[in-house]
Design brief:
- The chain is mainly β.
- It has three domains: 79 residues, no CATH class; 59 residues, no CATH class; 158 residues, Mannose-Binding Protein A, subunit A (Mannose-Binding Protein A, Chain A).
- It has a five-stranded mixed β-sheet. Strands 11-12-13 form a three-stranded antiparallel β-sheet, with no helix packed on it. Strands 1-4 form a two-stranded antiparallel sheet.
- A hairpin with a 5-residue loop joins β9 and β10.
- It is elongated and about 65 Å long.
Length: 300
């Protein structure tokens, strides 16, 4: 609080009242100490006859007494008002008053059910979700998982496979943009994917590859074995890919561009923690009628 008088106007009016040893000096060009506004102060009362309303307010919640003839203002809350009932979806008061969702590495701040669930900028990952409510997108990297549910070879097409990945991620509260590791003739994964210079992680922060070059050199640092629920299979899972280790389109089948689940065959990969060789994406072929085949999903 300021403790010095600050002139506001060159004009002033003085009145002197003599009685019972009291002298009152009223100066319109000065603001009295104690009535200075501060962050969180309430508004002053309406002026009454004979004086101006005060502008004071206790930032802890109690309004200060108004000026001569006025009423005190309502106290603030140390900042902007917060409605506890709005903390389920208020990005500035997410889960509790005063707890703002961080903007670090964030494209869009989002508060859902009292937890910050941001859309991250390209190259950032929110590995604090959902334990840390307000740490933003703190890690450089991109996430990857295998779908928990098997999918038919009739996605349909590459766009359909991407949508399956997007839906699987959103179903467990993971935002961001997702695409499937699949290829067709003239639309290979290497053409659709951003060649990232940041690491690829499983959902438990296990590094799969250091960057795009590492991802497509034929050897992974760790197999892609965690699904969107962070559960690893106990047995190998086949995965629709149609893709060579370098991201180009495999020369095997692709179930007629991933539109036919009645005949033909397609190139698959094999998901397992220690499956780090090229067969993670090119592990043979299965019939397009196969019932228990999954997808690899990568964050864009």
């Amino acid at each position: 609080m300021k403790t010095s008088l600050k002139p506001q106007s060159p004009r002033s009016v003085a009145a002197v009242l003599v009685g019972a040893s009291l002298i009152l000096l009223a100066t319109a060009g000065f603001r009295c100490p104690g009535n200075e506004p501060s962050a969180g102060d309430g508004e002053g009362g309406e002026p009454a006859d004979g004086g101006a309303g005060g502008t004071g307010g206790d930032p802890q919640g109690a309004g200060a007494q108004g000026g001569v003839g006025g009423e005190g203002g309502d106290g603030g809350m140390g900042g902007a008002q917060c409605d506890p009932e709005m903390t389920m979806d208020d990005v500035d008061n997410c889960g509790a008053c005063g707890r703002a969702c961080s903007a670090m590495g964030v494209e869009t701040r989002v508060c859902q059910m009292g937890l910050c669930r941001p859309t991250c900028l390209p190259g950032f990952v929110d590995f604090g979700f959902p334990a840390s409510a307000d740490d933003g997108c703190e890690t450089l990297g991109r996430r990857v998982f295998i779908t928990a549910d098997p999918v038919s070879a009739k996605f349909p097409g590459v766009a359909g496979a991407d949508q399956i990945c997007q839906d699987a991620a959103e179903a467990v509260g993971m935002l961001g943009h997702w695409q499937a590791w699949v290829s067709v003739f003239q639309d290979a994964a290497t053409d659709r994917f951003l060649h990232s210079n940041v690491p690829y992680f499983l959902l438990d922060m296990t590094v799969v590859a250091n960057d795009w070059t590492d991802l497509t050199d034929g050897t992974l640092l760790h197999g892609i074995d965690l699904d969107e629920h962070m559960i690893a299979p106990s047995t190998p899972r086949p995965v629709w890919t149609g893709t060579f280790p370098d991201g180009t389109t495999a020369q095997g089948g692709d179930c007629n561009g991933w539109t036919d689940d009645t005949e033909g065959s397609a190139t698959i990969g094999v998901s397992l923690a220690n499956n780090t060789k090229s067969n993670w994406t090119m592990g043979g072929e299965v019939q397009c009628t196969a019932p228990d085949v999954h997808l690899y999903c990568f964050e864009k």
